[in-house]
């Protein structure tokens, strides 16, 4: 047993590495910056370390043997995190002696938040990673909880705490039998020496102590609701500590904070081969304990930067998306993250639109006209709720007409109207007639009006521009003459888009006007070298981001300027980015040349192979080569980038020949009657290539023939004849083909047919052609039933795929119609479809899982929850087995999240809230990462999560979230979309639960009326709303 010396003596804290402070100066207290990048704009993350009790802020992070402070030494954490601001927070942690100070967890946490908030002025959304040793970890937990509970006092703080590393933090307290507890021998020895004791902090770490329990419990509750989840990692001591030295006692070493106490439920943990007092100090960069701690900090830092870029700074109800999306009909590209204000160009556009319907932007290639139009479109839609955006690609007649076709689909124009008058005229007539509507149409990339003629009538397509007193038409063009003509010769309504100056260039490169004079000088010089081109500055930004600082900013500018006497700075910027892409991703670089070789503004997704869509296209997005449309059906290629690539190909004949052959093959491989309309612009672009090899000539002949057949169906016989004439020449010249005679004969017969049809009265227009009886696929349930009955009459045993597809379509329409009495038949149909899938594909196939999911929905609609749950889980098992981390498949991953989300929603409706929450904790972060904040499927999950929180009584937070979801759904979907109306009904229920009966009644009534009109009186959503309204009315009478 340890002996206490007979004569009380003053404990010597300086003799021990852990409690190493006898006096703490006020200069040592507070937040101190150990290392910061020279340019504040380069800081990506804040790292803040908080020490334990009895420690000197000056030495607590420094190893005595090597005198190395791992937070500041050039070879330690600053080398691992060059873009981090590394800080340490010091406080007076002495708990006995003449300089002892009374401290509480809450008091220290408040001081930490105050100083950290001051340090982050100007950068409120920068991610924060905390490192806490011992009691410092409890301080961090208290700070997090306070920031989460009092967001007005500490705005954006808890949202930005992306990771916390705990070093020996006593989450469960110091053991009661520890000599460091207030009941232990150390405390007794200090008391016997008649020294002043302020043990509040020490008592806070006692096992089962109320402050400790509340601190950890409240922290665990708040951090568990963070989305994405704040990363936590706990390190525990693996060596005993000689705590007796604090009071001059000779007692056996002991574990101060053992593995159990230093662990948090749900967080990862790892041991360090150190005692408690050395867990926060390391010998050098090769110290194994340091490497373990560093690895976790680096992991947190990487994820912090990524999640912050995706909008981490907002929880379940973000106010805005990092990539805002235009609803109704998307622009070809998303809104720029770093938009250059250009002296108020958006305000100038708005001012001109208040007077005139047509406004035009004109300027050189790469000056940013399209991005200005996109930015204005977002601004317009935000300021005119319920308005529509229509985007028209004016690069060619085919692209113009394809844009109008998408508008017709969005407006749900009848097929009869489009066939009777032509799609372009049908859209023009509808928008002109809808005089009360507010909409903006953007005519993008208008360069040659003579090329824009209707393919059916030969009329100028610009004649089909709709006019409307409430409408706005924004035109982008390189030609001042054309811009003037488009605004009816009134030049005050054209706006020049000039090369950028340094302040706007700084916005593109850094998101703001940099405060660093040296950096602004670099921006000014680079802008001058690039001719003020916004597109070229975007190339420079992409190169700077993707080169990962292998190529410094100074060297980049020197390379640009060194080549100015030979080529333009824009060309050099493109060559540098192309070289980097080719070095890091050679196959993707080839795809980049392919998409640029096609002289079209937008490339449809169906042109690409699966691995290209999921692997290579995202890389091209990251490099700024392509930008996806909101629904990812189209990928936009900026004219500047396309022109630079085509210029480079023209100077490299071998690359050009190879690229054009690959492009020809890609179009030919995907061009068929189903895709012909979408791929026609790409096919016409490919048909301009000069083929040289035998195989490429054969491929070109085949493509020409297929395009001619599509033109024949459209009634464009002259174009069909032109294609067939070229096809015939190629096939007649092919001396080595075994099928030459047959192919030549096929071509001659098709040409004769086209000539004959052209000679008939009324020929040459699509409207003159008879309607195909089988081409009109009805969207109604009755039509689907008839089609299924027709299939079953000749295929009663369901042996043919078409019968199964019709059955699946019929079942889906039954679910969509939501008729209470129709779900039984729906279950029967899906059960037969499932049996067919299992027989044809096996149990472990994606189609089988998809059908199981649909069958589960049908069972759930009947209240058969056990059957539904089994099917949901079976589908999830199949999908999980198909998802391979080494070969990511976005479609599979999204389907998995959708199925799991539906299961969570069903749990929620059953009152199984914990199981629902567990599902949503997987689904919501996954959908945010893979689909984005305002994707329709993400919005469904956000709605369901809100309902879960509502059932737990969090009514105010839920109200705000539901309003955000409703606003996003109204923009992306339709006002009468079933999902939008369900969210509106949930808001009504929220009003009802909060006692706002009148507001609830008005909302229920509005929703019921809309559901009755849009869905019908018997739809289950309509019925449920009616029931809820009746219940409310009864409640109001009481």
UniProtKB/TrEMBL annotation:
Pfam families on file: NB-ARC, TPR_10, TPR_12, TPR_8
TPR repeat intervals: 849-882
Polar residues bias locations: 790-801
Record key words, sorted: TPR repeat
All residue ranges annotated as the NB-ARC domain in the record: 358-516
Region Disordered, residue ranges: 760-803
Signal peptide residue numbers: none
Listed GO MF terms: ADP binding
Full protein name: NB-ARC domain-containing protein
Organism of this sequence: Neonectria ditissima
């Amino acid at each position: 047993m340890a002996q206490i010396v007979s004569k009380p003596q003053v404990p010597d804290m300086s003799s021990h590495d852990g409690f190493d402070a006898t006096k703490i100066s006020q200069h040592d207290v507070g937040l101190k910056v150990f290392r910061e990048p020279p340019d504040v704009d380069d800081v990506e993350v804040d790292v803040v370390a908080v020490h334990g009790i009895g420690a000197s802020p000056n030495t607590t992070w420094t190893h005595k043997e090597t005198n190395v402070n791992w937070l500041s030494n050039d070879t330690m954490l600053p080398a691992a995190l060059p873009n981090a601001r590394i800080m340490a927070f010091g406080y007076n942690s002495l708990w006995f002696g003449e300089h002892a100070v009374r401290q509480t967890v809450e008091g220290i946490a408040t001081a930490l938040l105050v100083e950290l908030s001051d340090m982050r002025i100007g950068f409120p959304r920068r991610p924060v990673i905390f490192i806490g040793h011992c009691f410092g970890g409890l301080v961090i937990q208290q700070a997090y909880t306070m920031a989460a509970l009092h967001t007005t006092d500490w705005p954006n703080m808890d949202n930005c705490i992306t990771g916390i590393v705990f070093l020996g933090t006593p989450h469960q307290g110091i053991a009661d039998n520890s000599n460091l507890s207030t009941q232990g021998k150390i405390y007794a020895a200090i008391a016997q020496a008649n020294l002043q004791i302020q043990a509040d902090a020490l008592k806070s770490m006692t096992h089962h102590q109320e402050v400790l329990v509340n601190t950890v419990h409240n922290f665990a509750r708040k951090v568990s609701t963070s989305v994405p989840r704040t990363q936590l990692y706990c390190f525990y001591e693996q060596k005993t500590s000689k705590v007796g030295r604090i009071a001059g006692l000779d007692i056996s070493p002991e574990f101060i904070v053992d593995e159990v106490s230093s662990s948090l439920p749900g967080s990862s943990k790892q041991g360090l081969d150190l005692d408690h007092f050395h867990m926060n100090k390391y010998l050098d960069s090769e110290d194994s304990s340091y490497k373990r701690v560093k690895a976790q900090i680096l992991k947190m830092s990487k994820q912090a930067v990524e999640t912050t870029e995706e909008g981490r700074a907002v929880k379940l109800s973000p106010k805005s998306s990092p990539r805002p999306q235009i609803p109704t009909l998307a622009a070809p590209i998303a809104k720029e993250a770093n938009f250059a204000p250009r002296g108020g160009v958006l305000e100038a556009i708005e001012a001109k639109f208040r007077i005139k319907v047509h406004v035009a932007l004109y300027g050189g290639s790469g000056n940013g006209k399209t991005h200005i139009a996109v930015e204005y479109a977002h601004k317009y839609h935000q300021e005119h709720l319920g308005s529509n955006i229509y985007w028209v690609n004016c690069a060619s007649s085919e692209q113009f007409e394809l844009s109008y076709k998408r508008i017709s689909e969005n407006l749900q124009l009848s097929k009869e109207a489009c066939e009777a008058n032509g799609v372009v005229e049908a859209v023009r007539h509808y928008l002109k007639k809808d005089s009360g509507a507010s909409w903006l149409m953007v005519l993008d990339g208008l360069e040659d009006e003579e090329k824009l003629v209707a393919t059916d009538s030969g009329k100028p397509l610009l004649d089909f521009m709709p006019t409307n007193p409430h409408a706005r038409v924004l035109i982008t063009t390189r030609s001042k003459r054309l811009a003037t003509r488009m605004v009816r010769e009134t030049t005050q309504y054209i706006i020049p888009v000039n090369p950028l100056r340094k302040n706007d260039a700084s916005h593109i490169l850094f998101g703001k006007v940099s405060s660093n004079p040296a950096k602004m000088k670099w921006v000014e010089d680079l802008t001058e070298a690039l001719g003020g081109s916004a597109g070229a500055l975007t190339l420079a930004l992409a190169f700077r981001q993707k080169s990962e600082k292998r190529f410094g900013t100074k060297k980049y500018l020197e390379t640009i300027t060194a080549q100015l006497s030979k080529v333009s700075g824009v060309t050099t910027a493109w060559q540098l980015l192309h070289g980097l892409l080719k070095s890091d991703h050679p196959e993707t670089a080839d795809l980049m040349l392919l998409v640029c070789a096609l002289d079209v503004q937008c490339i449809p997704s169906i042109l690409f192979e699966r691995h290209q869509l999921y692997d290579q296209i995202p890389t091209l997005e990251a490099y700024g080569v392509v930008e996806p449309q909101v629904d990812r059906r189209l990928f936009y290629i900026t004219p500047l980038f396309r022109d630079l690539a085509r210029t480079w190909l023209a100077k490299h004949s071998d690359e050009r020949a190879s690229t054009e052959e690959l492009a020809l093959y890609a179009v030919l491989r995907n061009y068929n009657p189903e895709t012909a309309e979408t791929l026609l612009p790409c096919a016409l672009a490919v048909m301009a290539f000069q083929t040289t090899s035998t195989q490429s000539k054969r491929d070109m002949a085949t493509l020409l023939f297929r395009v001619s057949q599509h033109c024949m169906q459209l009634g464009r016989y002259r174009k069909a004849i032109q294609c067939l004439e070229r096809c015939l020449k190629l096939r007649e010249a092919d001396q080595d083909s075994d099928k030459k005679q047959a192919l030549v004969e096929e071509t001659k017969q098709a040409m004769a047919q086209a000539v004959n049809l052209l000679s008939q009265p009324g020929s040459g227009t699509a409207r003159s052609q008879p309607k195909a009886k089988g081409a009109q696929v009805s969207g109604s349930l009755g039509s689907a039933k008839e089609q299924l009955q027709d299939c079953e009459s000749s295929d009663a045993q369901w042996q043919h795929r078409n019968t199964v597809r019709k059955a699946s379509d019929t079942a889906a329409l039954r679910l969509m119609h939501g008729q209470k009495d129709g779900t039984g038949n729906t279950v029967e149909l899906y059960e037969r479809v499932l049996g067919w899938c299992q027989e044809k594909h096996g149990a472990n196939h994606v189609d089988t899982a998809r059908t199981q999911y649909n069958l589960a929905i049908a069972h759930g609609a009947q209240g058969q929850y056990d059957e539904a749950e089994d099917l949901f889980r079976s589908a999830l098992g199949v999908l999980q087995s198909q998802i391979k981390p080494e070969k990511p498949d976005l479609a599979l991953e999204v389907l998995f999240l959708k199925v799991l989300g539906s299961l969570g929603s069903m749990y929620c409706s059953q009152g199984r809230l914990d199981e629902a929450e567990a599902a949503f904790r997987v689904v919501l972060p996954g959908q945010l990462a893979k689909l984005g904040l305002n994707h329709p499927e993400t919005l469904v999950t956000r709605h369901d999560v809100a309902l879960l929180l509502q059932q737990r009584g969090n009514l105010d937070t839920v109200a705000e979230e539901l309003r955000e979801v409703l606003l996003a759904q109204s923009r992306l979907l339709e006002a009468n979309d079933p999902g939008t109306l369900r969210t509106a009904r949930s808001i009504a229920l929220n009003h009802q639960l909060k006692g706002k009966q009148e507001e609830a009644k008005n909302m229920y009534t509005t929703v019921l009326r809309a559901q009755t009109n849009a869905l019908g009186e018997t739809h289950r959503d309509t019925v449920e709303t009616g029931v809820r309204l009746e219940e409310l009315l009864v409640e109001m009478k009481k």
